[in-house]
Protein backbone atom coordinates (compact mmCIF):
# COMPACT_ATOMS: atom_id res chain seq x y z
CA UNK A 1 0.00 0.00 0.00
CA UNK A 2 2.86 2.31 0.79
CA UNK A 3 4.38 1.81 -2.64
CA UNK A 4 1.17 2.84 -4.45
CA UNK A 5 1.00 5.97 -2.32
CA UNK A 6 4.61 6.92 -3.12
CA UNK A 7 4.12 6.25 -6.83
CA UNK A 8 0.94 8.37 -6.80
CA UNK A 9 2.78 11.25 -5.13
CA UNK A 10 5.66 11.01 -7.61
CA UNK A 11 3.27 10.89 -10.58
CA UNK A 12 1.31 13.84 -9.22
CA UNK A 13 4.52 15.84 -8.72
CA UNK A 14 5.69 15.01 -12.26
CA UNK A 15 2.32 15.98 -13.70
CA UNK A 16 2.36 19.25 -11.75
CA UNK A 17 5.92 20.03 -12.91
CA UNK A 18 5.04 19.24 -16.52
CA UNK A 19 1.93 21.43 -16.36
CA UNK A 20 3.88 24.31 -14.78
CA UNK A 21 6.53 23.99 -17.50
CA UNK A 22 3.90 24.01 -20.25
CA UNK A 23 2.26 27.09 -18.70
CA UNK A 24 5.55 29.01 -18.86
CA UNK A 25 5.88 28.59 -22.62
CA UNK A 26 4.30 31.70 -24.11
CA UNK A 27 2.17 31.03 -27.16
CA UNK A 28 1.57 33.91 -29.50
CA UNK A 29 -2.13 34.61 -29.93
CA UNK A 30 -4.14 34.31 -33.15
CA UNK A 31 -5.96 37.40 -34.46
CA UNK A 32 -9.26 37.41 -36.38
CA UNK A 33 -9.81 40.46 -38.54
CA UNK A 34 -11.71 42.36 -41.15
CA UNK A 35 -10.96 45.41 -43.25
CA UNK A 36 -12.40 47.85 -45.75
CA UNK A 37 -10.51 48.05 -49.05
CA UNK A 38 -10.15 50.90 -51.53
CA UNK A 39 -8.68 50.14 -54.98
CA UNK A 40 -7.20 53.37 -56.36
CA UNK A 41 -7.00 52.42 -60.07
CA UNK A 42 -10.45 50.78 -60.30
CA UNK A 43 -11.94 53.23 -57.79
CA UNK A 44 -13.61 50.23 -56.17
CA UNK A 45 -14.60 49.47 -52.60
CA UNK A 46 -14.38 46.02 -51.05
CA UNK A 47 -14.03 44.14 -47.79
CA UNK A 48 -11.97 41.25 -46.48
CA UNK A 49 -11.93 38.69 -43.68
CA UNK A 50 -8.61 37.34 -42.41
CA UNK A 51 -6.81 35.44 -39.68
CA UNK A 52 -3.29 36.38 -38.47
CA UNK A 53 -1.53 33.18 -37.39
CA UNK A 54 1.95 33.29 -35.81
CA UNK A 55 4.55 30.82 -37.08
CA UNK A 56 7.48 29.24 -35.21
CA UNK A 57 9.72 31.75 -37.01
CA UNK A 58 9.96 34.89 -34.88
CA UNK A 59 7.99 37.88 -36.29
CA UNK A 60 6.54 35.87 -39.22
CA UNK A 61 2.78 35.41 -39.66
CA UNK A 62 0.63 33.46 -42.11
CA UNK A 63 -2.51 35.41 -43.03
CA UNK A 64 -5.18 33.54 -45.00
CA UNK A 65 -7.85 35.89 -46.31
CA UNK A 66 -10.85 36.28 -48.55
CA UNK A 67 -11.70 39.61 -50.23
CA UNK A 68 -14.83 40.65 -52.06
CA UNK A 69 -15.62 43.61 -54.32
CA UNK A 70 -19.46 43.87 -54.61
CA UNK A 71 -21.35 44.32 -57.93
CA UNK A 72 -21.85 48.08 -57.52
CA UNK A 73 -18.13 48.41 -58.43
CA UNK A 74 -16.96 48.44 -62.03
CA UNK A 75 -15.15 45.13 -61.35
CA UNK A 76 -17.09 42.51 -59.39
CA UNK A 77 -14.41 40.20 -57.93
CA UNK A 78 -13.60 37.63 -55.28
CA UNK A 79 -10.06 36.94 -54.03
CA UNK A 80 -9.01 33.96 -51.87
CA UNK A 81 -5.49 33.14 -50.75
CA UNK A 82 -2.95 34.21 -48.21
CA UNK A 83 -0.05 36.41 -47.28
CA UNK A 84 3.16 36.10 -45.32
CA UNK A 85 3.70 39.08 -43.04
CA UNK A 86 7.06 39.82 -41.43
CA UNK A 87 7.34 42.41 -38.65
CA UNK A 88 10.43 44.48 -39.39
CA UNK A 89 10.22 47.31 -36.86
CA UNK A 90 8.53 47.97 -33.54
CA UNK A 91 7.43 51.56 -32.94
CA UNK A 92 6.07 51.85 -29.38
CA UNK A 93 2.82 49.87 -29.43
CA UNK A 94 2.82 49.29 -33.22
CA UNK A 95 4.66 46.94 -35.58
CA UNK A 96 5.65 47.86 -39.12
CA UNK A 97 5.53 44.84 -41.45
CA UNK A 98 6.23 43.78 -45.02
CA UNK A 99 4.11 41.24 -46.86
CA UNK A 100 4.10 39.00 -49.88
CA UNK A 101 0.87 37.38 -51.01
CA UNK A 102 -0.68 35.08 -53.60
CA UNK A 103 -4.39 34.93 -54.45
CA UNK A 104 -6.84 33.15 -56.65
CA UNK A 105 -8.92 35.85 -58.35
CA UNK A 106 -12.43 35.10 -59.60
CA UNK A 107 -13.49 38.01 -61.79
CA UNK A 108 -17.26 37.60 -61.70
CA UNK A 109 -18.18 40.12 -64.42
CA UNK A 110 -15.24 39.37 -66.75
CA UNK A 111 -17.69 38.58 -69.58
CA UNK A 112 -18.56 42.29 -69.67
CA UNK A 113 -14.94 42.86 -70.75
CA UNK A 114 -14.65 39.91 -73.19
CA UNK A 115 -13.42 42.04 -76.13
CA UNK A 116 -10.35 42.86 -74.03
CA UNK A 117 -9.58 39.13 -73.69
CA UNK A 118 -9.80 39.07 -69.90
CA UNK A 119 -10.08 35.74 -68.06
CA UNK A 120 -12.50 34.91 -65.23
CA UNK A 121 -9.95 32.87 -63.24
CA UNK A 122 -6.58 34.44 -62.47
CA UNK A 123 -3.53 34.23 -60.21
CA UNK A 124 -2.72 37.55 -58.50
CA UNK A 125 0.61 38.04 -56.65
CA UNK A 126 0.84 41.05 -54.34
CA UNK A 127 3.42 42.81 -52.17
CA UNK A 128 3.13 45.60 -49.67
CA UNK A 129 3.42 46.68 -46.09
CA UNK A 130 1.46 47.87 -43.13
CA UNK A 131 1.28 49.02 -39.55
CA UNK A 132 -0.55 47.05 -36.82
CA UNK A 133 -1.00 47.61 -33.09
CA UNK A 134 0.92 44.97 -31.14
CA UNK A 135 -1.08 44.70 -27.91
CA UNK A 136 -4.63 44.58 -26.58
CA UNK A 137 -7.56 42.58 -27.86
CA UNK A 138 -8.60 45.13 -30.52
CA UNK A 139 -5.67 45.86 -32.85
CA UNK A 140 -6.26 48.32 -35.70
CA UNK A 141 -4.13 48.11 -38.83
CA UNK A 142 -3.53 49.96 -42.08
CA UNK A 143 -2.01 48.25 -45.09
CA UNK A 144 -1.04 49.19 -48.64
CA UNK A 145 -0.57 46.59 -51.38
CA UNK A 146 0.36 46.41 -55.03
CA UNK A 147 -1.25 43.78 -57.28
CA UNK A 148 1.27 42.75 -59.97
CA UNK A 149 -1.34 41.00 -62.15
CA UNK A 150 -3.65 44.00 -62.57
CA UNK A 151 -1.05 46.69 -61.77
CA UNK A 152 -3.29 48.13 -59.06
CA UNK A 153 -2.67 49.69 -55.68
CA UNK A 154 -5.08 49.20 -52.81
CA UNK A 155 -5.39 50.50 -49.27
CA UNK A 156 -6.86 48.41 -46.43
CA UNK A 157 -7.95 49.75 -43.07
CA UNK A 158 -9.20 47.27 -40.52
CA UNK A 159 -9.07 45.69 -37.12
CA UNK A 160 -7.99 42.39 -35.57
CA UNK A 161 -9.63 40.81 -32.55
CA UNK A 162 -7.38 38.77 -30.28
CA UNK A 163 -9.51 36.73 -27.83
CA UNK A 164 -8.03 36.52 -24.35
CA UNK A 165 -5.75 39.53 -24.84
CA UNK A 166 -8.03 42.13 -23.22
CA UNK A 167 -6.73 43.62 -20.01
CA UNK A 168 -9.06 45.57 -17.75
CA UNK A 169 -6.29 47.44 -16.00
CA UNK A 170 -2.53 47.33 -15.93
CA UNK A 171 -2.41 48.93 -12.47
CA UNK A 172 -2.50 46.76 -9.37
CA UNK A 173 -5.12 47.51 -6.80
CA UNK A 174 -3.87 48.36 -3.33
CA UNK A 175 -5.68 46.53 -0.62
CA UNK A 176 -6.50 48.51 2.50
CA UNK A 177 -4.59 47.52 5.61
CA UNK A 178 -6.60 45.69 8.22
CA UNK A 179 -5.93 46.62 11.82
CA UNK A 180 -6.02 44.02 14.55
CA UNK A 181 -9.30 42.89 15.95
- What is the CATH class name? Mainly Beta
Q: Which stretches are low in confidence, meaning pLDDT under 50 for 5 or more residues running?
A: 13-24
Number of domains: 1
- Architecture per CATH nomenclature, i.e. the level-2 architecture: Beta Barrel
Number of helices: 1
Radius of gyration: 24 Å
The name CATH uses for the topology is: Porin
Shape descriptor: elongated
Read across the widest sheet, the strand sequence of neighbours is 1-2-3-4-5-6-7-8
Helical coverage, percent range: 10-25%
Overall pLDDT score? 84
* Main β-sheet description: 8 strands, antiparallel, barrel
Estimated share of beta-strand residues: over 45%
Reading the helices and strands in chain order gives HEEEEEEEE
- State the separation between the terminal residues, measured CA to CA: 47 Å
Structural class: mainly beta
Q: How many beta strands in the DSSP annotation?
A: 8
